[in-house]
User: Fold Activating signal cointegrator 1 complex subunit 3 from Mycteria americana.
Amino acid sequence: PVDRSPEIQEARLKLPILAEEQVIMEAISENPIVIICGETGSGKTTQVPQFLYEAGYASSNGAIGITEPRRVAAVSMSQRVAKEMNLSHRLVSYQIRYEGNVTDETQIKFMTDGVLLKEIQKDFLLSKYKVIIIDEAHERSMYTDILIGLLSRIVPLREKKGLPLKLIIMSATLRVEDFTDNNRLFYATPPVIQVDARQFPVTVHFNKKTPLDDYSGECFRKVCKIHRMLPSGGILVFLTGQAEVHSLCRRLRKAFPFQKNNTAGGDDDKEESVEEIRKFRKSRKRKKVMTLPKIDLDNYSVVPVDEGDEDRDAETDDDIAGSDIDLDLGDGDSEEDEKSDSSLPLYVLPLYSLLAPEKQAKVFRAPPPGTRLCVVATNVAETSLTIPGIKYVVDCGKVKKRFYDKITGVSSFRVTWISQASANQRAGRAGRTEPGHCYRLYSSAVFMDFEKFSAPEITKRPVEDLILQMKALNIEKVINFPFPTPPPTEALAAAEELLIALGALKEPPMTGRLKQQLAAKLSCPISPLGRIMATFPVAPRYAKMLALSRQHDCLPYTITIVSAMTVRELFEEFDRPAVSEEETAKLKGKKARLLQMQRIWAGQGPMQKLGDLMVMLGAVGACEYAGCTRKFCEENGLRYKAMLEIRRLRGQLTTAVNSVCTDAGLYVDPKMKPPTEAQATYLRQIVLAGLGDHVARRVQAEELLDDKWKNAYKTALLDDPVFIHPSSVLFKQLPEFVVYQEIVETTKLYMKGVSAVEPE
Ligand code: ADP
Ligand code: MG
Assistant:
């Protein structure tokens, strides 16, 4: 029996999912697999585990496991459920990549989807669990998709063993056809239970103009206007990343301070002292306008306004109180906003995945009396967390996503427009407790150009790393795997071929007809080398380089080169148009300085042949030697942010290598010496081993039929001539054989990240 506090009881009863408890539990008892759909905030994540617990699904020999695509949800949901059930964290626990509080007694376990995938690698039948809940399935993260595919096989296997496992898939949208209309996935179509959402209407306001890049500034202005002009109710702002979140928090705290130590920008907002609250109340009394103006939200019409700057004039409280309020706050600047105004305290909180859990938890508490809550969040607030009391949503329309280079598989984070489905999810956050408003900082025309849904992650990226992970799970015939949405066959074949070439998979026997060969290729088992490569968190090409580098003490160099290749754009771009002659001269000077440094970093003798990779190694070495300061970067044409990112990655890869080679004893040496001549030669072989499919040969004089092949190279992949990029240190040398990191197409096909290699 669960002993819940009266307040929790009351809050639970308001959740729409409570009305469905019986329907849900009957479906689960009668079916091995059940899908539950319900709007964000309807109570899926917090309540379904409790239903199961109370119905006796958890016991000492079998737990309830819940996966989340995000760490922040795994941590905060375990805490919330423990609190609601009045149970200790020893029983309701969480496990994320690097930390957790799981014990022998754990009966409800929240974890990230990656953690469960790793557990399957150790125990394919997941015998520790009686129930697995896959949460946030609509997000279609790659691991979630793979887990659903794996579980579709694990569930029948457990059935056969007489130890049934229940699988529950939860989604915030009704778009679940990829799971239900997919008879390769589930033999019997699982029932879909729809939880009615108690959603209040949300009025959506589009900007007239879409800010070109300063959406952060636009967010700031919008929040200022909402706070000054609109009735009470929490504000939720969607931005794309941690740095943006912090900088907006700082700006807002400065504009609307509510207590001294808040303006310092720290997050350790102490509970407000009674004295301060009293002072605040007094100061409010002296002011003419005591409360924010009230408006009738049901009697609202969007008043057409002039393009953009209708409210540039300073607004006073009196003005607002006396006039109709235009809820469509409009776009554009307002100088007024930057002034600090302590009479209107705003309680500003950041929220993003990597924020410490105790700081994340603050968003769920009521704001200090007399203040308005304003949460500045990344995408985590879109579906995983429901923040109480939000009435206004400010949506920048962007998201930071990982993109993959089709040629190199190198990943990078980029900010792009969200999908229409995401935009609507974000808007929905404003209507949980009463009617709300969503301010979109982009025009309706831009919205119409958004894609309807974001494509499942698995279809948008090269899959060689995923295939390697699956082979590490001993799934040999990847082509037969029941993907909810399969990656394109070409992508699978290309991945398999690359992994064979890298030695991560065992070569198929070269007999039989071509077709059989191809089939065999898509079912090759993993090699011992592949198993090691699978443990490194980088693309297989780079993992191969790492795996080879134990020899001749090359590891620190390979780790650095791989880190630098994974982070893009190490060098500042100085070939940009300048606004004045003065600036032109300045850019010219900086460029000359960078070129000079690059020649120094390129080293001499065999080092020089490593080409651009040696430049990367030399640049990182020099920068670290100087303490990786912003000053050093600016003086030498390095991108400071890139250098910081490389530093982080070096640390991560060093840890990963140490855990495989326990006797390697590697550490990140800020005073790393340049490689010896011998090491430089070895490094070229290592690089060739990883980039073996990226070899290019200079076109010979006798092959020169056409002028377009002058100074050109021939690759295995392309019919057209490719060239060494002018930014390469090997541009003028034109070695006979080179390997390249990637090919980019501008006016011509250019190779970047070039090293010279010798024919065997
Ligand atoms: P769903 O998974 O369907 O999106 P949840 O179970 O996450 O819904 O949330 C249900 C309700 O519980 C929401 O109204 C939310 O405000 C509340 N809630 C969730 N976590 C917390 C928390 N840590 N503190 C207070 N309320 C919370
Ligand atoms: Mg949820």
The first strand starts at residue 33 and ends at 38. The pocket of magnesium ion (ligand 2) is lined by residues 44-45, 135 (CB under 6 Å). Confidence is low (pLDDT under 50) at residues 260-325, 407-411. DSSP finds 28 helices and 21 strands in the chain.
